[in-house]
Design goal:
single chain, 244 residues, alpha+beta, Arc Repressor Mutant, subunit A, Beta-Lactamase, 2 domains, 7-stranded antiparallel β-sheet, 3-stranded antiparallel β-sheet, 8 helices, globular, disordered N terminus, disordered C terminus, binds zinc ion
Length: 244
């Protein structure tokens, strides 16, 4: 995962613009823009757009499909169903988004500064969970989120990781599900903590001047919420050329 010497794609105007266009399309339409649409918007050759998308994916700012020519995720947005639907609460706002996981679903609210409803099901009892959340509205306190694997493994297969970061109706149900399906694996965290983390983690994703956050910044966001120890230790991962 080390990317020493690779330029940070958000250090160039082209990289920032392409990333923002992708995020804006998700925000506006709930879907990923196609490579052809991005090429048209940027007036750049498709080959060049594809290469830049690859750089953004290497920097963990996008996730591409296997063939590398379409966008699978642009956190907190996802291009196809992953267990969560995010619906704005504002009257007349008919947008909908696929939440990539519990964390990303709160992240969509944070990135858009929007009150939403997050719909999912408890993996243990299959109860429908319809969760109000917003920039100033935490989710109900009885809900929890289970993280399936430690932070160093998140990006080994990030789609699988996100797909498995699920919300449970109670800590008891998360513990019983874990005992049945993955004994001793993962961590269970209050949904309020995950919501609070998402507020800082994702708040600036639609800023035109967004720059890829450093590992140290993101580690501090976890630490501040008591998410510390080896399980939450982010790997060195992709590096920016200008990392100190
Ligand atoms: Zn349940």
């Amino acid at each position: 995962m080390e990317q020493h010497g690779r330029p940070d794609p958000t250090s160039s105007a082209e990289g920032r613009r392409l990333r923002l266009l992708a995020l804006e399309a998700f925000a506006r339409e709930g879907r990923a823009p196609t490579l052809a649409e991005l090429a048209r918007s940027t007036a750049a050759p498709p080959g060049q757009v594809r290469e830049l998308l690859g750089d953004l994916a290497d920097a963990h700012l996008l996730v591409l499909d296997g063939a590398g020519d379409s966008i699978r995720m642009a956190h907190p947005f996802a291009a196809s169903p992953m267990g969560f639907v995010v619906t704005p609460l504002g009257e007349g706002d008919d947008r909908r988004w696929w939440g990539g996981c519990a964390w990303d679903s709160f992240g969509i609210s944070a990135a858009l500064g929007l009150d939403v409803r997050v719909d999912t099901t408890c993996p243990h009892c299959s109860a429908s969970l319809s969760v109000p959340a917003g920039p100033a509205t935490p989710p109900p306190e009885h809900l929890v989120v289970r993280f399936p694997r430690p932070a160093p493994e998140w990006w080994d297969d990030v789609v699988a990781t996100c797909s498995a970061i699920r919300m449970f109706c109670s800590r008891d149900h998360a513990d019983r599900w874990t005992a049945a399906h993955a004994p001793g694996r993962g961590r269970v965290v209050s949904a309020v903590t995950v919501w609070d983390l998402a507020r800082d983690w994702y708040a600036d994703r639609l800023d035109p001047d967004f720059r890829r956050p450093t590992r140290e910044h993101q580690q501090a966001l976890l630490d501040e919420r008591g998410l510390d120890g080896d399980f939450w230790r982010l790997p060195p991962g992709p590096r920016r050329e200008d990392d100190a």
